[in-house]
Amino acid sequence: MAPGETLAILKYEQAGADEAFDDLGLRVAMPSRTDEQVSLYVERGLTDRLTLQGKLGWTRGEDAFVAYEGRGPVELGLRYAVLRGDRSVVSLYAGAVLAGEGRNAGYAAPGAGTADLEARLLAGRSGAFRGQPVFAEVQLARLDRSGLPDETHLDLTLGMEPSPGWLTLTQVYAGQADGAAMSPRWLKLEISAVRSFGDWRLQAGWRESVAGRDSPAERGLVFAVWRSF
Q1: Domains of the chain (ranges plus CATH)?
Q2: pTM exceeding the 0.90 threshold for the entire prediction
Q3: pLDDT means per 10 residues in the chain (229 residues)?
Q4: Strand partners for 174
């Protein structure tokens, strides 16, 4: 972010599951569960290379054994642009997470976990495809977690502007938790569309687990309001 510029995203996320991936990656039936979260993500440019980012929210959910409602995870960190060109950028992020009162990992029970440290490498490039603006981004992260297994994340994003004022996003969220007997894995696909109205944007999409191991097969809606100022 440029110095003094701010982006705020208010997002609603829903995740439901009545199946899970077993230790062989096969889908099996499980007691149904639902999880919902409303979060506010904010990033603000501090210098030409340094961006402050944070996130907080509220979450609730229930399954056959428990119902919960309370504060979601609180995140705070700094992102530094290591390399930057006309069409490419490489950044490093370091931050901390205070666990929330709900599910701090999709495979864990509500309330499990206390605090995390995160290191993330981000690389993105913009260009054009058949005359339309596009961009691609790769993020690789390592989480040092307390009360939960450490995790490795790989997030991919492909964005395209098919017409003025419209942006389509295809995103992949993959990860694996450390473990001996159980090493949960997940691979989720999210497709959404974003419509611009000046400094405002509206986003609507769908997220679904397409593969995994020892983790729920989640699916649900995503809605968000973006504001730049």
Answers
A1: 6-228 (2.40.128.130)
A2: yes
A3: 95 96 94 96 97 97 92 97 95 97 90 94 94 95 95 97 95 91 91 96 98 96 97
A4: 154, 187
